[in-house]
Write a structure and sequence with these properties.
CATH architecture of the largest domain: Alpha-Beta Complex
Number of domains: 2
Structural class: alpha/beta
Order of helices and strands: EEEHEEEHEEHHEHEHEHEHEHEHEHE
CATH topology of the largest domain: Quinone Oxidoreductase, Chain A, domain 1
Shape: globular
Radius of gyration: 20 Å
Number of strands: 16
Distance between the termini: 11 Å
Number of helices: 11
Strand content: 25-35%
CATH superfamily of the largest domain: Medium-chain alcohol dehydrogenases, catalytic domain
CATH class of the largest domain: Alpha Beta
Largest sheet: 7 strands, mixed
């Protein structure tokens, strides 16, 4: 089979399209012909060696998201057959319930080989059925970005009709959050530094648009939009440079879902009274379980909801896809066709 191999963790430029032996499978395995993957910020960090000793530093098949078609099942496998379209769970050992250390560290593409290959063997419990209305490219955007937004708003946040959500940017997680919030009957404020991108979010149902480049005090603006009471839920993706604004925007008793650290991972100047005296809940979100992925897929099928795909690259052009992701010019998911 062909695979993209990271010889040394020095960046996407070190990726090589390589011929490798097909995976060895046993009686408890499902062999999948991979059709698509998608990029996440985590993948870009891994390619540069950002996880240090926690990751495989050489000869790694990268990327965590993947979708494809079953080509072979082991003799002990029930529930899957050749021809089934499947999507891989982000944390293959997290089936449901609360996570543990083993579950959250089981995501492929870091210390173990990932999805950027033509064939991959899976344990049956790590796969879910791809919704019929989605292409493999669209399905490949679900395991990380889609499920993270679903967990933040539905599983943990329990967003409901009439709630007011603030979400940041126009990457994969934020646009999924917008779509899921509208599906749940909520009102949505979205931020971006691009008026053009903001206009496109209006087509997806965004109710209020804030350009944070021209309005750096956007937390106060969101507070005004709420009528002064504060928003019910914030999808916090920026980190150091955005959390203060998020805390200004959120209502007493509201939720800030901590997901990304795109602008930094330390919170040195955060006003703790904004959290403590107002009973704000800071909720860390680590993607989600297979049960969550299945529930999300059912909801998307029921509502005919499709992910927003920015662009599709060939496997051999993965380095260019990563460069596009890192540029911040994308709107939605950057995907790889295998």
């Amino acid at each position: 089979m062909k695979a993209m191999l990271l010889r040394t963790a020095t960046g996407a430029e070190a990726l090589e399209l390589t011929e490798m032996p097909d995976p060895k499978t046993g009686p408890g395995d499902v062999l999948v012909r991979m059709r698509a993957s998608s990029l996440n910020w985590r993948d870009s960090l891994i390619l540069k060696g950002g996880y240090r000793k926690q990751q495989k530093s050489e000869n790694l098949i990268p990327l965590t998201d993947g979708a494809g078609e079953v080509v072979e099942v082991g003799s002990d496998v029930d529930g899957w057959k050749p021809g089934d379209r499947v999507t891989a769970s982000f944390c293959p050992n997290w089936i449901g319930g609360e996570p543990d250390k083993k579950a959250v560290e089981s995501a492929p593409g870091k210390s173990e080989d990932g999805m950027l290959c033509e064939l991959k063997a899976f344990r049956p419990h790590s796969l879910v059925r791809t919704p019929d209305h989605l292409t493999d490219i669209e399905a490949a955007s679900l395991p990380c970005a889609g499920l993270t937004a679903w967990s933040a708003l539905i599983t943990l946040g329990r967003i409901k009709p009439g709630d007011l959500l603030l979400t940041q940017g126009t990457g994969g997680v934020s646009l999924f959050a917008l779509q899921f919030a509208k599906m749940a009957g909520a009102e949505v404020i979205i931020t971006s530094s691009s008026d053009e991108k903001l206009a496109r979010t209006r087509e997806l149902g965004a109710d209020h648009l804030i350009n944070y480049a021209t309005n750096p005090d956007w937390g106060r603006t969101a507070l005004e939009i709420s009528g002064g009471g504060g928003v019910d839920h914030v999808v916090e993706l920026g980190g150091t440079q955005t959390l203060k604004q998020s805390l200004m925007a959120v209502r007493p008793g509201g939720i800030v879902s901590m997901i990304g650290v795109l602008s930094g991972a330390t919170f040195g100047d955060i006003l703790l009274p904004f959290v403590v005296s107002r009973q704000v809940r800071l909720q860390g979100v680590t993607v989600g379980s297979r049960h969550g992925l299945e529930a999300m897929c059912r909801a998307m099928a029921t509502h005919g909801l499709k992910p927003v795909v920015d662009s599709v690259y060939a496997m051999a052009d993965t380095a260019a896809a990563v460069a596009h992701l890192n540029s911040g010019k994308h709107f939605g998911k950057v995907c790889i066709e295998i």
